[in-house]
Amino acid sequence: MEASPAASAWSSVNSGIVLSLAAVLWTVVWNSLQSLQLHHLVGRHLARHARRLAAVVDPYLTVTVAEHDGGRMKRSDAYREVQAYLHRATCDASAGVRHLRAEPAKNPDAFVLSMADREEVADVFRGGVTVWWLAYSTPPREDDAGGGFYWGGRAARADRRFYRLSFLERDRDVVLGEYLPHVRREGRAAMVRNRQRKLFTNLAGDTWGDDGGWCESVWSHVVFEHPKTFDTLAMDPARKKEIMDDLDAFRNGKEYYARVGRAWKRGYLLHGPPGTGKSTMIAAMANYLDYDIYDIELTSVRTNTDLRKLFIETTSKSIIVIEDIDCSLDLTGKRKNKKKKDAAAAAAADAADGDKKGSPPNEEEEKDKEGSKVTLSGVLNFIDGLWSACGGERIIVFTTNHVEKLDPALIRRGRMDKHIEMSYCGFEAFKFLAKVYLGVDAHHLFDAVRSLLRDVDITPADVAENLTPKAAGDNADTCLAELVKELENAKADKAQAKGKAAMAAEEEVDGDGDDDE
Ligand SMILES: Nc1ncnc2c1ncn2[C@@H]1O[C@H](COP(=O)(O)OP(=O)(O)OP(=O)(O)O)[C@@H](O)[C@H]1O
Ligand SMILES: [Mg+2]
């Protein structure tokens, strides 16, 4: 392995003494020129020679990665990736790091360890290129502390932390062209492995954002720990497999999306009656892919610009969810325009009448003005990936109980690529639930359940509720008997309702007949 920059400085004292003296002499001359304001004259020409001389005296180049770039509060991604990349080397006894920094970790009992200031580790790339990473920090700049002014906030008042990478000049191309991208890639992978998944929700909040700009909607998060997985989601096994294969294809589709020139995103529309497992499916997807969830409450987003900002702030490997899209928003642009036209026509009529001139706007109109101004086209832009310049894999999921109410533009393929109907519980889904909840594969009541499920619509949520033991003595027999009873009652209710409807129809026909006479 090559000597580190520090070690090398010692060993090269003898051989480099003449060059060092020349360098010192050069520095003195250069400083004098600077102090006499002559350096501009000597300028570029000498600077070129100075760089050559420096390369002879000190053949090391450096790259510095700062924790906060441009005074932002948010830590730079590159810094976090380097930190994650160096984590293993930092903890490896043979690397000789003696002083560590500890930050809170995912596991409440553990710490994330990194090198303390002035510690250095060596790394060997491709068996031949040795580099050195040094951690150091500097005190905050005077102007950063900012007398309580918001910019940079707490981050600006803390020490400024850096990693400095040193390497030999001869390895310049390999380090800059291959090693650094390798570090970022590996660092990102390590972060994904260690990260704690999060569930983000947007809040309407007038506040300063990370970028120092004024935000009217901000993300707030909690740790995402939903127990539901595809293993416990009841649905037809073939359909479940189809969805899992689709997710796999998406996850592994980076090259495919790049080749066809599309943003790496996929839209899923989950539709079906309440309690059929749409929200549960989203949790299972997130657990399967190991993604974060961004749950957008559209009614708290005031404008299309805010929606765009929220979207830009989402990170890669995430599922962006809009639940009950039909209720969240007046997405029917055409109808809204029509309503406006109708209102305008009515206003014109009123004005013509003259009796309502100058009347105050009604309450509903006022509310409209105050509320969300997110429009259908705002949402369409958002889905179309116009804002995916930030790159990375994102899944967008809409859920609705009323697919027929949605504007066709919103759910066409290419926007919502896959439509998944979550329906009432069939026999396959029931068998699955019986296995999960009661641990039974077969039972003499299964036949009765099978035939009742053909006649009755019951949600997986209701079946699951019936199959959950509630008292001490409850077991498979009692729970299944309970379910059969509920299904029989539902069947009887349905028959009764049907009978009533038929009678009402008959009466109507009779009534019509009487009128005719
Ligand atoms: N297919 C299913 N498999 C397993 N459990 C389910 C399934 N569907 C529903 N459940 C259970 O029922 C409950 C309600 O389901 P969920 O919230 O996913 O329904 P939903 O379709 O999102 O309803 P809504 O339209 O009202 O939002 C959950 O607690 C879940 O555990
Ligand atoms: Mg739901």
Can you describe this structure?
The protein has 20 helices and 13 strands. Residues 145-156 and 332-369 have low confidence and may be disordered. It starts with a helix and ends with a helix. The longest helix has 41 residues, at 476-516. Helix 2 packs antiparallel against helix 3 and helix 18 packs parallel to helix 20. Strands 8-7-10-11-12-9-13 form a seven-stranded mixed sheet, with helices on both faces. The chain has a four-stranded antiparallel sheet with strand order 1-6-5-4. It folds into five domains: 1-58; 60-194, no CATH class; 198-329 and 372-421, Rossmann fold (3-Layer(aba) Sandwich), CATH 3.40.50.300; 333-369, no CATH class; 427-511, no CATH class. It has helices at residues 5-11, 17-35, 39-57, 77-91, 142-145, 153-157, 172-194, 237-251, 254-259, 278-289, 304-313, 325-328, 333-353, 363-370, 376-383, 408-411, 427-438, 446-455, 460-466, 476-516; strands at residues 60-66, 100-104, 111-115, 120-125, 129-138, 160-168, 198-208, 214-223, 265-271, 292-295, 318-322, 394-400, 418-421. It is an alpha/beta fold and 517 residues long. Helix content is 48%, strand content 17%. It is elongated, with a radius of gyration of 33 Å. The structure holds adenosine-5'-triphosphate and magnesium ion. Adenosine-5'-triphosphate binds at residues 233-235, 274-280, 401, 422, 460-461, 464.
